[in-house]
Amino acid sequence: MQYFGTDGIREKEGIFTPDFLARIARATVGLKERPKVVIGRDPRVSGERIEGVLTGTLLRFGAEVLSAGMTPTPVLAFLTRHFNADFGIMISASHNPPEYNGIKFLKTDGRKIEESTEAALERLIDNPCPLEEREGVLTRIEGNRLYIDDLCRKLQPSVAGMRILMDTANGATAEIAPQLFRELGCDVTAIYTETDGVRINENCGATHIETLAEAMRKGSYDLGFSFDGDGDRLMAAVGGRILDGDHILYVVARVLQQQGTLKDNTVVGTVMTNLGTEKSAAKHGIRLIRTKVGDKYVSDEMERNGYAAGGETSGHLIFSAYHTTGDGILAALLLAVIERKYGVLNLDDLEEYPQSHQDILTDADGIAAFDRSEAIKSYLRKVEGEIDGRIVVRKSGTEPKIRIMAEGKTKAESEAIAREIRTFILEQIKQ
Fold first, then answer.
1. What is the distance between the alpha carbons of residues 200 and 22, in angstroms, rounded to a whole number?
2. Element (H, E) at 254
3. Rounded CA separation 424/308 (Å)
4. 99: number of Cβ within 10 Å
5. Residues 170, 191: Cα–Cα separation, whole Å
6. What backbone torsions phi and psi does residue 190 show, to the nearest 5 degrees?
């Protein structure tokens, strides 16, 4: 059975029964005898329960478990690499609502495991192999301190005195992100910093950037940052303008190009990356390569070819000189360093094609109907051939949704296209 989506195993928390969790842990040991595993979680209410079952089962079969407690995904990825662990296990549903949770597997270098490894785990979850019970070892680690020290050593940031507003989404960055910037001498105002897990991502964080925009208008700040629940995404604000992942990737890529560290003058985006970003980058001699949606596909492309910068519109940003995975805290610090060194972040030359997004919430039958419909495929080809823009229609990898993105010369045009596509697909999957 397939359990993994585009970002690990993710569902409403009720699916994570003790039996299912024990099977996941046993499968981990089935892949690697006596593995070293770093485990962490975001603050969701179900996180401690899930961590407890996974840890207990891993220890029962001889694993060495390093527990990082509540920590962001990029910190967990750093720790997996730092301790040369066989696996990192992050318990999080990222940007999803509080009632969801998930399990992400990372490999030794901090990147997400390959699809072949996911398939091997799925086989072992469904068909557990015999395992010898033996005593494991549990160690609790202070990962945030290690991460902060490593990041400051690599970047050597000079940002003292900057006025920073940050929305930590009532999530895993609530402690570490303000701590980092305050230690660097910034004047930090942090909002949505509750870590009881009840309100993670609720009307706050990177998926509700309007919350940051409103708070920015009420104060005087140099930069605003908005993280998602597990800290692997970033949205930002400067001078009254909201910056999504495309904007941030463009800004950092231009600086890396000036420094001579943007390999092959190439950045990696996805099919969702705004066409305006691609055209604007091209004017400066920067090529954009597109992958499927999912930061793991961006990461894979970067790893294969040694590219320095990649990301998604949604705010997953990877800068390989500093980290191997999407890291909202790193991206925020890079923006602060650039703002301090070069002055106001200039996006005047960045073209944008207005995008409109529509979602269709459905079920397994609706997804199956969408997959097999030749009428939908034919219709989408026809629409794309008629418009001066782009469309992307895909299944969500983390929720039972069909996602629609339309890009046009005007907002009205893109909205009309997205609505028409949504209406047509709904008619087809309900037949």
1. 26
2. helix 245-259
3. 40
4. 13
5. 8
6. -110, 130
pTM of the prediction?
0.92
* 334 closest CA partner among 268, 236, 219: 236
Q: How far is CA 51 from CA 70, 137, 230, 408, in A?
A: 10, 15, 15, 45
Helix and strand counts by DSSP (H, E) for the chain: 14, 18
In the numeric block, which tokens belong to residue 132? 């010898």
Domains annotated on the chain, with CATH: 9-141 (3.40.120.10), 146-342 (3.40.120.10), 355-429 (3.30.310.50)
Interacting residues of 17 by C-beta distance below 8 A, sequence separation 6+: none
DSSP H stretches of helix in 40-188: 47-60, 73-82, 115-126, 143-155, 176-183
Strand partners, 266: 287
Is the confidence at residue 344, as pLDDT, over 70? Answer: no
**CB count, 10 Å around CB of 119?**
12
Which residues participate in catalysis according to the annotation?
Answer: 94
Q: With 70 as the cut, is the pLDDT of residue 173 above it?
A: yes
- Residues paired with 39 in a beta bridge: 67, 89
pLDDT (tens digit per residue) in 126-171: 999 999 999 999 999 999 999 999 999 999 999 999 999 999 999 9
Q: Are 341 and 155 in contact (CB under 8 A)?
A: no
Task: Please tell me whether residue 28 adopts helix, strand or coil conformation.
Answer: helix
Alpha-carbon distance of 339 to 333, in angstroms, equals 10
Give dist(CA 236, CA 294) in Å, integer: 20
